[in-house]
Amino acid sequence: MRFVREILKDVEGYTPGEQPQGSNLIKLNTNENPYPPAPGVLEALRNLSADALRKYPDPLSVAFRRACAQRYGAPDESWIFAGNGMDELLAMVLRTFVDPGDTVVATYPTYSLYEILCVLHGAKLHYVDLDDDFQLTPDFMSASGRLCFLTRPNAPTGVAAPREAVADFCARFQGIVVIDEAYADFAADTCMDFPDRFDNVIVMRTFSKSFSLAGMRVGTMKAQPQLVREFLKTKDSYNMNAASQAAALAAITDYDHMLASVAKVCATRQRLREALVARGFRVPESQSNFLLAHWNGTPSAKDIFQALSAQQIFVRYFSARRLENALRITIGTDAECDALLAAIDGILGAAK
Ligand SMILES: *Cc1c(COP(=O)(O)O)cnc(C)c1O
Asked: Among 191, 224, 223, 221, which Cα is nearest to 205's?
């Protein structure tokens, strides 16, 4: 393609999990929440006036950012930025703090979008392998770069690095540390207080998982105001539309609804993990809304993934290094997880 930039020649683009169509299927492949968002969200969307659609939305999403500031322990909205899903914020952080040619640090494995964003931006991604238990290594702790993506809890492992180790890293690292807390609402603790004491830390959240709003596209972040100010320069003029601002504000206002839904997911997570371990899978303790289930038997993890897909049960399989013998399973409802276990029993039984 002679018109395209040199950089795009080897880029494949991010491969999202399948979004199969139909009603009689079980979808445990993209870490969506199986429960609906707060009733106030739908009400806020129904109440959008013709005028609200006719006019441009608030370019700074102030009402929503104010609510985030209150919830996330910030003095005011100057500590908060919000956007069209966390993926937009991840791209923006490169645009704002990284020059082409600079080095960006991340663990391996982690969220695969970082790599694509770095390639598109012309940044060099330096992966540092996690250890066999998917924990941070001394090599990671001493890595250097212009920016670091640190996912906590990590994806697709579900493992959360100890808070003290992350704090040590933030104190030592010379560049910006982005702590991707996409799954933090499902975890025992978070790093949302780190921006209070570190001027190089940005903590990011998405409303796609715990708040059941993947379809709305809402992401937010907390950092010191001098960092947030720079985002105001690199943002699209209206990067949150009127509907997502209204929905996001309603969602964070009914925080208890989110907590109740997260509690259900965490209870099911424990039950599903024990059931998978009883069947011979090796499953690290997860602090997120998914499990990474390792399987070294016959049929292979990939065969199991395909046999489940044929039964309209969708989980995620990555053909990447260190993940090729594993399935990433989103926590669904209890009934969905029971159906998954019954299907796995059928597949393993038939192979005996
Ligand atoms: C889902 C996810 C995101 C992105 O969330 P969106 O707000 O839906 O763009 C970012 N990081 C990780 C690790 C995720 O799993």
From this structure: 221
| C-alpha–C-alpha distance, residues 99 and 47, integer Å | 43
Extract the tokens encoding 271.
């039950």
Q: Which atom of ligand 1 is nearest to the CA of 111?
A: 13
Q: Is the pLDDT of residue 133 over 90?
A: yes
CA distances from 344 to 105, 268, 289, 303 (A): 37, 17, 20, 11
For residue 13, the model assigns a pLDDT of 77
> Quick check: 149 and 179 in contact, CB under 8 A?
no
CA atoms within 13 A on the CB side of 268: 26
Q: Has this prediction a pTM greater than 0.85?
A: yes
Q: Nearest C-alpha to atom 11 of ligand 1 is from which residue?
A: 182
- The binding-site residues of ligand 1, defined as CB within 6 angstroms of any ligand atom, are 31, 85-87, 111, 151, 155, 180, 182, 206, 208, 214, 219
pLDDT for the residue 221: 98
